Amino acid sequence: MAAAAAAAAVGEPQPPQPELPAPGMSLDKAATAAHLKAALSRPDNRAGAEELQALLERVLSAERPLAAAAGGEEAAAGGGGGTPGAAEEEALEWCKCLLAGGGGYDEFCAAVRAYDPAALCGLVWTANFVAYRCRTCGISPCMSLCAECFHQGDHTGHDFNMFRSQAGGACDCGDSNVMRESGFCKRHQIKSSSNIPCVPKDLLMMSEFVLPRFIFCLIQYLREGYNEPADVPSEKDLNKVLQLLEPQISFLEDLTKMGGAMRSVLTQVLTNQQNYKDLTSGLGENAWAKKSHEKYLIALKSSGLTYPEDKLVYGMQEPSAGTSTLAVQGFAGATGTLGQVDSSDEEDQDGSQGLGKRKRVKLSSGTKDQSIMDVLKHKSFLEELLFWTIKYEFPQKMVTFLLNMLPDQEYKVAFTKTFVQHYAFIMKTLKKSHESDTMSNRIVHISVQLFSNEELARQVTEECQLLDIMVTVLLYMMESCLIKSELQDEENSLHVVVNCGEALLKNNTYWPLVSDFINILSHQSVAKRFLEDHGLLVTWMNFVSFFQGMNLNKRELNEHVEFESQTYYAAFAAELEACAQPMWGLLSHCKVRETQDYTRNVVRYCLEALQDWFDAINFVDEPAPNQVTFHLPLHRYYAMFLSKAVKCQELDLDSVLPDQEMLMKLMIHPLQIQASLAEIHSNMWVRNGLQIKGQAMTYVQSHFCNSMIDPDIYLLQVCASRLDPDYFISSVFERFKVVDLLTMASQHQNTVLDAEHERSMLEGALTFLVILLSLRLHLGMSDDEILRAEMVAQLCMNDRTHSSLLDLIPENPNPKSGIVPGSYSFESVLSAVADFKAPVFEPGGSMQQGMYTPKAEVWDQEFDPVMVILRTVYRRDVQSAMDRYTAFLKQSGKFPGNPWPPYKKRTSLHPSYKGLMRLLHCKTLHIVLFTLLYKILMDHQNLSEHVLCMVLYLIELGLENSAEEESDEEASVSGPEHCHDSWFPGSNLVSNMRHFINYVRVRVPETAPEVKRDSPASTSSDSLGSLQSSRRPKVLQRENYRTAQIFSLVAERRKKFQEIINRSSSEANQVVRPKTSNKWSAPGSAPQLTTAILEIKESILSLLIKLHHKLSGKQNSYYPPWLDDIEILIQPEIPKYSHGDGIMAVERILLKAASQSRMNKRIIEEICRKVTPPVPPKKITAAEKKTLDKEERRQKARERQQKLLAEFASRQKSFMETAMDVDSPENDIPMEITTAEPQVSEAIYDCVICGQSGPSSEDRPTGLVVLLQASSVLGQCRDSVEPKKLPITEEEQIYPWDTCAAVHDVRLSLLQRYFKDSSCLLAVSIGWEGGVYVQTCGHTLHIDCHKSYMESLRNDQVLQGFSVDKGEFTCPLCRQFANSVLPCYPGSNVENNLWQRPSNKSIQDLVKEVEELQGRPGAFPVSISSETNLSKEMESVMKDIKNTTQKKYRDYSKTPGSPDNDFLFMYSVARTNLELELIHRGGNLCSGGASAAGKRSCLNQLFHVLALHMRLYSIDSEYNPWRKLTQLEEVNLQLGNEEQQPEVPILYHDVTSLLLIQILMMPQPLRKDHFTCIVKVLFTLLYTQALVALSVKCSEEDRSAWKHVGALKKNACDAEKSYEVLLSFVISELSKGKLYHEEGTQECAMVSPIAWSPESMEKCLQDFCLPFLRITSLLQHHLFGEDLPSCQEEEEFSVLASCLGLLPAFYQTEHPFISASCLDWPVPAFDIITQWCFEIKSFTERHAEQGKALLIQESRWKLPHLLQLPENYNTIFQYYHRKTCSVCTKVPKDPAVCLVCGTFVCLKGLCCKQQSYCECVLHSQNCGAGTGIFLLINASVIIIIRGHRFCLWGSVYLDAHGEEDRDLRRGKPLYICKERYKVLEQQWISHTFDHINKRWGPHYNGL
């Protein structure tokens, strides 16, 4: 490794010593090392030291290599020095030898390790490492543990999670600064250092001499490798140098791992200043050293840093440690005034190109403290190493080395100081870096280890001015991207803001800095220093003001903006991270009374900054129209510190509030944001694109709301409580642009709003007032109440999972605030307000998570619509909450109709904010409420139910919060007469409610109906929009009544503002201000306005009562309840009134009004006594009538449509129940296919495409929609009931040799070894693996209709997840997935009934008939020769069936392509389908009936197709198994043909296969008596096989005993039906051969431990025969439509036997049932048995072992299961996520494990790809014939592969709250959900993945 060594500088230049070992000797490193060690151990060791120096100089000399490695040719020309790299390795070898002092290096390492007092773990990891965090044990929130320490410690019941490290980290185990000692693991539970022996001096002596040189050599390499070019050094060059240095750095890293003793030596070396000075000063003769030092200086200079020697240039002294380094006044001045605008910014290469017209602004920061940014002086190796680490952009290896050293306390302090010293340089480098992401992560990786420790942070803050440095660096960073603010006064604005489009903000490059800053502010001692330091606070506020008003939005009025900028993400992130989080950090230390001063400081500088801001943007009192910024961090700082001051520090609010004028200014911008929100939701900003909606949403979104909207609303509440209420209310309506709407007149014109926006803006204004007056978040609620209110609001919108609740509830954004998510209070509040709904699994396949839903009493008492409105990001959530509330009221019977949002009582106000309630008792608001009530009653347009709702809500709020004594009807004596005094006498709502207003003077357009021409036009304008009104109030000329004057909100507000300003205008400077700014008054294009007088004669009370009549639609509907029950006035809180609609709300309000004042009560009674005249009906004009008719017609059409839809839905529903019902056997609707009424002669099918019904015919066949899929489920059966466990240790492995598939495979290959191939292929079934399963949804269609359907699908481009080219489609009716059509065989169903009549023929006759029928070729009603459509279709479906599975699962013959293959394959398809149906029925037929599986089965049709094709292959009549079963043959023929392989002996045949062959060879349809005959004959063979197997299993003694017993009974009359006789005969026959001989060793294995009793033998025989009986019964059920009887398990055999006709009808069931009684021998039993046994004898002569093995067939397979998974997911994860793959021996990036067989595979891994198939896909083909079920280890989810598609199935592991954790993002402990796993297994066994899971996609073999 030629790691380019730069020159080894000489310590003291001197001629080489004569003792230098001769070159020859130098090879023997160990001896030299030992010699030197001895020399150095002497008391006088100068000679030794010099000798060592010289040696090191030679060994570590760096003069050759670097050139050789990096410089290429010229190095070679100069004669580089051997191979590059050899020298380096040599140098490393020398170092190792010298360190070990002559001994072995490994032993040396071990020796050093023995002295390790490892109290700290300190393991360093890099990104993607899996670590743990325990919040219960952590003191710092950044605490993390490696997996080993975590599992060794005890964290049961703690709040911990596992996480994948983003940036890297280090294990904190053993560090009591960061975590509690209770959480330490066993290894690191504090060892006292006393029991660690002292390190012997000579052990590390050599290290102390060698290491300084080694590290210096490394530094020289780094200097040499860094060429400071003109442009930034390319990544490549730096990486090259780093690669070469790899071994050196690794060597250092290994040293750090030797433990404490070695670390302390390294610390000494790295921090020793003398060593550094001696070696690196670059003085002396050595040219190399000089050059190296020069390079170092150049590097410093080019980084914009100076070496302190050049200080004179700057004329600056190094600041002394104590003083704060910021020149405060100068600095503030610098930021306030702008420097020159400079676009050629040398800092940043990109200049100002990306910024369009906006130029960057540079501050003239001449006064900035240069020493922080620009001066660096290195005094030790550590400092220079860090410098180069930064220069090389934090190479991972270096970072790891520096961090590995941290357990050494002394080093930790030195390193932290060094890091702080380089802090500014780090950030400069980061800003320029191309790889800023990687670099950020590495920086934080280091800084989080240093700054999380409070003690350390405090020390550096005091000694190194850490805070000054950070704030200065932050300012420096942001200054590079400032632009001029366009807010308010664009031309003259002096304010600058950050430009959110800059890379710095867009890419979040400032993140590491801010993260460190937040980290250190979390320490109390550091935060206090910050809050006490006025200079720092000024600077900080300056910094915050850069964000004030950033990302300004201007409303587009003409055309849509062409480019939607997405900079708002950056803006919100910046405000949250750079402003809000530090603010929360500071606030967390202002919790007690003693901290009042801090708050005063912050508030003071905050107000100063705000005042500067208002001045800079030239703000007077009117905000510029059509622009809004969501970013007001200064306002929010101010608000949050105020809130904290009142809540926790008992400060008097007024002492920290500014004067009225400042309050007026403060409220403008937050109010502007609220109005803009309403505008955005009213679609007034629609031309600005979607991003403006995005901003409005982000502003209220859960992560931002408590740093954005909450402080804004709180600030407005504070202003409202201190300002004049009339002024405030009129400001609100003016900001929301609805002033003109608030007129009594029926018409008005609005100069600032379009008519279509008026209603929603009015709703917005009223809603805002309701929120402002009812929200108590900062006005007196405790933390727990807030949490509860937030939680209730979220739960009311929707049921929520635990994790989404945690996410949605606004946390205090600063992690150290102490409110930890999942903390005690969270859980206790949650259990108080919500019920847990366990995760259910719906049959449709959608998996539910565990959800929390509000308790009934929460809906009843705590549902708070105001909180919901405040917290909804999407407006639809408000509706959702109301819908749920309505549903609750209906369900609980509290209210049947459509309720209004309930009115909720509020928590009491904190005394400081009492003034807020004055808003409710001000005349302006009352006039607005009166006007709106009147307009609603008079049906003016633009008013919605929502408006009324809010109006009533405000009235009710006013009544709830009315002043105690109602008598203070003070007329406002002071001040000038306001025109609103002519409306109401006082300002108390309770008394104003009853005040009658007779006449009102209004301004209307001249065109309005109210106008009589003689009214003089007035000059003051109250512009009102022009809208028609249906009712025309009388205009009165008489003015003898007192008339309420025209009321202009704007004029009033201006007046108020003047008053307030005049009050404070005693100060001289006030004169300068213009009184108001009329810059933006609207152009007066409005028509002339005139004044009219309306007769009103109403009070608020009378309006309310009339409203009650109007809402209820009845005259005189209101009857005061207290007339019946006077009690009601005393306790007005009556539950009857708490839920209801508007009528109820009106009643509630009237009741409250009456109970608060006797006068009101009396007036209400009076109003009710006067019978109100009916409201005159409107005269309907013709035009209106037309629209009404239209409406009516529309309504009718709509109703019709609803009806149709409902009908359709119900039809679909009933259909879904019959067809889709996957697992419910209740709905046994027989399918039309299998059975029909006997009187119908032909089966009739409905085509679901063309809708016609008719029979299936030769030329137009009908087919069943089917899905063909290859399946290996059968092959997974094992003989044990317990499923295998998933391996979770190296010892546990799963071997597949005991699966059904493996056993059958072995049997077939054994037969093929010894017997004739063609006969082998008839003796067994295949299809255990890769068998084809056919299922249908039960719908039929014409095959030609299907073809055109497929054609249309092919042309349709929008396909979801299936491929038409492979023949896939979805059933046109039920949309079930399918891929073929199975033709229905034409013919009647009734034939079956004819054929089923029992005949009385003897079994011998039937046997003959069967044989004849089999011999007759093509005895089919359809002749194959004529190519009909039907036969074509049958062939094509057969092709489909073959292509469904892979070739290897079809070809078992030794001669490829032999017809025997097809023959075997075809009857095996039938076998597969029968066996699978049996499994779907639970493995037995006890339940009887047609099961759900039966509904999907199409065996009848399948049989026809298979039979048709089987008949094409005639079996060699010479060898038909039927003959062997039913005829005796001459024996002697067998012996002649030795040379060719024999046929398979009949006793080795699989009886079920024989049955299928026999039946498929018969002409269809089959007669019932023939079927029974075949079954009877085969049963005799089966029974014999059972006896043989039994005889082989038992011991010699048992055999002879049985032989004897049976022989005695042989001559009894029913000997052929007695198992004892038959068994003894079998034994005697077989013992003639060698079958029983070769026992000896094997015998013990075979012997069954139980003594054989007659019962156990009977059971054994029945068990052997049962599988055959089950399959046969199923077959009979499908072919002849006979029902399966249900029975108990113990009687299954006898019931099936009688069902199949094996039992004689007259059989008595009294005495115990004997299976042998079912035997019905077609030929004499003993003869045929002799014949069968003879075949076996002749085989076992030669192969006794194999012969015996073939006789013992395992027929008792248990149901297939997936692997059993462990309870806790962590056990799987820990074992598999680091496990290496057996194929490629790497640790896979995405490991997965097969849940069927436990194989470990690489998902998507290119390493294990074979011929373009990735490993999972390959495995799914080999293990499941195309179906794979994999658990993805890193994601905890299950993925299903089915053929060429895949889908994510979901997870079977859920956390304690019933939620999945996909990708393990939350890292909470997960536990198996047994129900889900059962469902997964059920879908696998029933092959319904395709139907149930909806989201499939193609995998292109890439999984």
Question: What does this molecule look like?
Answer:
This protein is an alpha+beta fold and 1903 residues long. The strands form eleven sheets. Strands 25-24-26-27-28-31 form a six-stranded antiparallel β-sheet. A three-stranded antiparallel β-sheet has the order 3-2-4. Strands 6-7-8 form a three-stranded antiparallel β-sheet, with no helix packed on it.
N-to-C span: 39 Å
Shape: flat
| Structural Rg | 46 Å
Q: Helical proportion?
A: 40-55%
| Strands in their spatial order, largest beta sheet | 25-24-26-27-28-31
Number of E-type strands? 31
Beta fraction: 5-15%
- Mean pLDDT score, rounded? 78
* Number of helical stretches of at least 4 residues: 71
